[in-house]
Design a protein that fits this description.
single chain; 29% helix; globular; 80 residues; 2 helices
């Protein structure tokens, strides 16, 4: 995120998810079909406790719980 100029915040990741999930098969401004679109969005939760990771993951997935996949780090806290 930082290399792309985005902050690592819940609001920023939610904005990216919303933008990605709004891509469609066809570009409305062109008669050409686009060969890409987003069916799901994956991001990783963060936190120093399992409760914090859960809270952040739930907040990140508020955009669309069917299409936003939250990864949890494999740490002692992330596997509780």
């Amino acid at each position: 995120l930082e290399r792309a100029g985005h902050q690592c915040t819940i609001q920023s990741v939610q904005s990216l998810a919303t933008r990605a999930l709004s891509l469609s098969d066809v570009d409305a401004g062109s008669k050409r079909q686009q060969h890409y679109y987003c069916k799901e969005f994956m991001c990783q939760s963060w936190g120093s406790t399992s409760e914090e990771m859960y809270k952040n993951g739930m907040a990140l997935s508020e955009v669309d719980r069917e299409k936003v996949v939250i990864k949890v780090p494999v740490t002692a806290e992330g596997t509780v």
